[in-house]
Amino acid sequence: MDKNIIYDMRYVLDTDVLVAGLRSRTGASRRLLLYLYEGRYEAVASVAMMLEYEAVLTRSQNLQAFNLSLQEVELFLDSLSYLIVPVTPFFLWRPQLRDPADEHVLEAAVNGGADAIVTFNLRHFQYAAARFGIDVVRPGEALRRIRS
Fold it and tell me: Over 15-50, what HEC string results?
């Protein structure tokens, strides 16, 4: 990513969006991944999120569903790590969410100055994210925002 570019959108991609993007060759999640590689928006993530991405994407059932090898998914994650803006949470507001496993996503969004958390689990984040002025959107809505 060119650090001199000013991006209109800054997102946090929940793990479910990456799974959907790798499972399907079509759809909004896949398009979001392609747009990230094209530099059409900026994505932020913490180390905790990258570790979750790795743990989930390399599960055997996901590798089968993606029709990718472990090495191919590791290459995807390596390239993703170059595109993602790293975020170091310096404030922890826990607990904010019902599911403690999602707290690191909200923390990355707040500390990374994200416009929105992109997820299929709107209910998990909506109320807590709104307290910080962060939208929670599905992949299709995230695409519409990039295109407008």
Answer: HHHHHHHHHCCCCHHHHHHHHHHCCCCEEEEEHHHH
